[in-house]
Design goal:
heterodimer; A: about 180 residues; mainly alpha; 9 helices; B: about 600 residues; alpha+beta; eight-stranded antiparallel β-sheet; seven-stranded mixed β-sheet; 12 helices; extended
Chain lengths: ~180, ~600
């Protein structure tokens, strides 16, 4: 599968098809991580993070693949792994040998807090927020899918879920800063 | 929701007009709290999107790894198959060309997979006249009724002339085992095990062509069984969609108390309750002897209204004057069969004497009684008239209200009568068959002496079989717990009276099978029989389900050999709720088994 085909599949939400091509890069990612104090499980996790970043990147309106996908993926995985190691306080952040992509320039630490806060939500809240923000479904469809009586209930529920996530976010953030 | 929240939502959803957006962004710069709120929400939305993407990829990864596992398994299976081919030094693929294809076999493919077609319950072949229909008496005691023109061809045209009906029943775990019919049922995603109270397969052919049922004249199967559980439902095996189709309930009739016709006439009951008392016309006393009696209130109301009633002997010739002088301990007055005539009985320790008498009056008592009678008679006649009118309207209303009920009752009654007649006829038929067989066996006896030794042996075998048949028939005729399950069929195929049970006690077990000598049996397809449960569960993979602490038996048939793990073996095996895997050391039947009868003999000994 060519790089172009993989990007096409990512842009058209063909996860399985894109994975077929993307998995050829997994051994490369794995090798890098296991050579740098990581385990096989770490490699799996990082590869998933890479997939997320790549998917988002590919779906940006002005996305253009300039180099080859293999180098691009390796660069993202190196970045992700260093970030993870830094968080584990095993390594001082040193960007010198890592190609920085704009997608990775966002505040990673804060994003990690948001991801953690989201992961603490209940199953239904998670599903509701994913359906709304990721799948861009209407409240009516969400109400039908999740068994709410009408779209107003779904809308209110979404507000509550987001508030709940915000509560978790602030708690994690404050506890984190207290540790310091 | 506050205004701020709404605005943040609209901003993040890109729903603001450009002017509004510019204003909001300028506020963001000056209001750090609002800025923080927007930043947090932005990150949380990103987190939701990230989670969504991860979820989709995880799904894809799972699918991919499942496919990879299947691929690996296929490779393993191929390797195992190749090993077996080499091991047996001939082809390991069973010879399917020998199969006697039935309707279900041909259309269902591997959905119905008997361990070997030669072991399957044999079909009994009957013939009916397509035009006239017919009744089939199966040796199990079941009666099949085909109405006239009940069988049609593929174009829906009624088939005339001789039609061959092929019929067989599956009544116990061995039958289910050899049939290869799936004995589980899926309902709303839940899997149930079937406990069967009777299953049968039926089809019709003419000139080698499969025939169908005329929907306007559906045949009826009256299945003989001993299970009277009314929780059992009726199912048809839909081989096209590979599932059991639920079709309601069958009708259960216990043969020991054949359904009786009962009178249910409500008006008769009410007549008894509100009985009108017909006044008795007073009669003037004649010359015959009379008895003075005391009428107790509530006993003879028609006489109670008159004063001075005496009982006059009707036939004087029977009368003994001395009886008037005798002391009687007791006296009993009763209505006779003739209106207005009574029987009077006098009793003492020595004698009992009865006279036919009629009530009489004399003098003023008669005149007064006549007046009372005339008055009462008018009242009675009026009441009678009213009664007739009300009864008529009552019966009219009853008939209109209960007409349907009555019709239903009558239909049911007719059906019951038909069924009863059919059962009686069947019993006669089976008795006749039995007698014929006995006679045949006598002839065989007579001829036996004349024949050579070899022939004699054959006759002996035949005789033995006949004897068994006789025992079977006499058992069939005498079984007092026989139940008839009746249902009409709208398709030819496999019909089942079953009760789906939730297998909540079973535990999954990773099973390996070996011979007693420790040789691994790779290709065994095990079937588990739970004692006391009239069903069977067959497994294709290596995970089987058993009920620890109860008696389980495992059967399998491979290349002419019947392997089994008996109830006793299971009791000795240390299998409990926490057991995850077990190697079953399978016993094997002493001799190769190649027919249903041979297999039954083996199983009956277990």
């Amino acid at each position: 599968m060519t790089d172009k085909e993989i990007i096409y599949y990512l842009q058209h939400n063909k996860y399985s098809s894109s994975l077929k091509g993307l998995y050829q890069f997994f051994p490369l990612v794995k090798k890098h991580i296991t050579n740098n104090n990581g385990t096989n499980d770490d490699a799996q996790d990082i590869f998933q993070d890479v997939l997320v970043i790549l998917y988002k990147k590919a779906n940006l309106p002005d996305f253009m693949l300039t180099g080859d996908l293999k180098s691009y993926i390796l660069a993202i995985s190196k970045r992700c792994w260093y970030s993870e190691l830094r968080q584990r306080k095993k390594l001082p952040m040193n960007n010198t040998d890592i190609e920085i992509t704009e997608e990775l320039q966002e505040d990673e630490e804060q994003m990690k807090v948001a991801d953690a806060a989201f992961s603490l939500l209940g199953k239904k809240c998670k599903q509701l927020l994913i359906e709304f923000y990721f799948k861009k479904k209407s409240f009516r469809d969400i109400a039908n899918a999740l068994g709410f009586s009408d779209e107003m209930v779904a809308k209110n529920q979404k507000y509550r879920c987001l508030q709940k996530a915000k509560g978790f976010y602030l708690t994690i953030l404050n506890n984190g800063s207290n540790d310091k | 929701m506050t205004n701020n929240t709404i605005n943040i939502n609209r901003y993040l959803q890109n729903e603001m007009e450009p002017d509004e957006k510019a204003l909001f962004e300028s506020e963001l710069k000056t209001n750090p709290e609002l800025g923080q709120e927007v930043s947090i929400q932005k990150q949380l939305i990103k987190a939701a999107v990230n989670a969504g993407i991860k979820k989709e990829f995880r799904k894809a990864i799972r699918k991919r790894s499942a496919r990879r596992k299947m691929l690996t398994l296929t490779v393993v299976v191929v390797v195992v198959a190749l090993t077996l081919v080499i091991y047996y030094n001939n082809t390991a693929i069973p010879d399917t060309s020998k199969r006697n294809k039935s309707f279900s076999d041909s259309s269902a493919g591997s959905f119905i997979s008997p361990p070997d077609s030669s072991l399957n319950v044999p079909f009994a072949n009957y013939f009916i006249d397509g035009e006239k229909g017919g009744t089939i008496y199966h040796y199990s005691g079941s009666v099949l009724y085909f109405p006239p023109l009940s069988v049609v061809d593929e174009n829906g045209q009624p088939v005339k002339g001789n039609i061959q009906i092929n019929y067989r029943e599956f009544s116990d775990p061995l039958d289910f085992f050899v049939s290869g019919i799936p004995m589980d049922y899926d309902s709303a995603g839940k899997k149930y095990n079937f406990e069967s109270s009777g299953m049968c397969e039926i089809n019709a052919v003419k000139d080698g062509k499969n025939l169908y049922i005329n929907q306007a004249a559906q045949p009826v199967i009256n299945l003989s069984t001993s299970n009277e559980n009314n929780l059992h439902n009726l199912y048809f095996l839909d081989t096209m969609n590979r599932r059991w189709e639920f079709l309601g309930k069958d009708k259960i009739t216990a043969v020991k108390d054949l359904v009786k016709t009962e009178s249910n006439n409500a008006s008769e009951v009410s007549r008894e309750k509100n009985k009108l008392i017909k006044p008795v016309a007073p009669i003037k006393r004649g010359d015959n002897p009379v008895f003075s009696i005391e009428i107790e209130p509530g006993s003879f109301e028609e006489l109670l209204v008159y004063n001075g009633v005496k009982m006059e002997v009707i036939d004087e010739s029977n009368y003994r004057r001395s009886d008037a002088e005798e002391h009687w301990d007791d006296m009993k007055l009763e209505h006779s069969s003739v209106e207005g005539i009574y029987n009077i009985t006098f009793i003492n320790s020595n004698r009992k004497v009865t006279y036919k008498v009629r009530p009489v009056l004399s003098g003023n008592d008669y005149d007064a009684a006549l007046k009372i009678f005339n008055q009462q008679n008018v009242v009675y006649q009026q009441a009678l008239k009213n009664r007739i009118t009300s009864e008529k309207s009552y019966s009219d209303s009853i008939s209109s209200i209960n007409k349907k009920e009555q019709q239903k009752w009558e239909t049911e009654n007719n059906e019951n009568n038909k069924l009863n007649a059919m059962i009686l006829e069947r019993n006669k038929y089976m008795r006749k068959i039995m007698e014929l067989k006995i006679r045949l066996s006598d002839t065989v006896d007579a001829r036996q002496s004349k024949l050579a030794k070899e022939a004699a042996k054959q006759f002996e075998l035949l005789q033995e079989e006949l004897k068994k048949d006789q025992e079977k028939y006499s058992q069939d005729l005498s079984k007092n717990n026989e139940i008839i399950r009746s249902f009409s069929i709208n398709r030819f195929g496999i019909w089942n009276c079953d009760h789906p049970m939730i297998p909540n006690l079973e535990i999954p077990l990773f099973a390996k099978f070996e011979t007693k000598s420790g040789k691994e049996l790779f290709s065994l397809r095990p079937s588990v029989v739970y004692k006391g449960f009239n069903g069977i569960t067959s497994f294709t993979g290596q995970v089987i389900r058993v009920i620890p602490g109860t008696e389980n038996m495992i059967w399998s048939y491979y290349k002419g050999i019947f392997y089994y793990f008996s109830f006793q073996d299971f009791a000795k095996a240390d299998i409990n709720k926490t057991t995850k895997s077990f190697t079953f050391k399978m016993e094997q039947a002493d001799q190769p088994v190649s027919s249903y009868e041979e297999l039954r003999k083996v199983v009956e000994k277990l």
